[in-house]
Amino acid sequence: MNGSGTRLTLGVEEEFVLADPVSGATVPHAGAVLARAGEHPFAAAGGRYHRELLGSQIETATGVCGRLEHLRRQIRDARLALGAAADRERLVLLSTGTPVLPGPVPVSDGDARFAAISRMYAGVVDDYQVSGCHVHVGVADRDTAVAVVNHLRPWLPTLLALSANSPYDHGRDSGYASWRMVEQSRFPGSGVPPALPSAAAYDRAVERLVDCGVLADPAMTFWLARPSPRLPTVEVRAADAVATAGEAVLQAAITRGLVRTALDDLAAGREAPRADPGVCAAAVWSAARYGLEGPAVHPLEERKVPVPRLLDELMARVAPALEETGDLPEVRALLAKVTRAGSGAERQRAAASGGLRAVIRMLARQTVRTDPADRETA
Asked: What Pfam family is a match, any one (predicted)?
């Protein structure tokens, strides 16, 4: 484990919501917080902030990273900077898949695309304050990206279960670990993507949905993994917005391990496993419903299994790639921390014994935690 193996480049996009620290309700002040924040701490390396569809949301994007410690620093420092800017506006920055206590929030002003999306999807996006953690891993070209996605399909539900951090819907416990995924399933082009033979086939599939009038544009798909429409990367969007920076690093490291393993399979001529779309949909639903508490659906064996078994299989798959780059000890430590403390959804529910505002306070602390390794989860 000398860490000398080839490291695929990676980056992470995180979405956050802004809330009033007293009422706990989300507020449409993204513009003011972004003005306070100024430039991303790693702007010179490509880091940036973005407004999102609704005025309560902000997205951060890291620059291109090779080593996990560089990625961790960019994630942590962006959270700290945005959290400080929110504090100066007397607000809190929260990393959660859905708000605990949402407030009335309009679509962001001045963006024609956001306005078109709002008109197309009507009531579905009126209060669509869901947030995710998206991981980008660099690959050679779009055909390779599509081939890699075919190999990732069975593992996407487990990535969701590991990240589940959205149990609340308008102040009520939804009973789900990831209500975000339920919200997202209301859109066309969601869930595990279809297995496709090439980038051209992928583009035709997306354009067909655009021509049908159910996607605003080719960048609008909600599939949990895809070739990025903007970057030479595989973009994996299975995860809820995770509470801590360490959990974001965990998602990124495992995702890169999956992509590296898929590339090795492709080089060796090994075909992607055939995962039935209906069973994949069942696996996504089960991951959203139960998170790490299980049960889970095994996409390949097509039956109910305990979640720890799928986590063990996931780690067995990525361990050689992680060992090659020297990341395996850190990933094992981060994973053990999450499984011991419980998913974000479990931690939110535990905090709710002190009321929903206690959940807000916990999320605000975890979002900007300053532990250098970002390994404390609760």
From this structure: GCS2
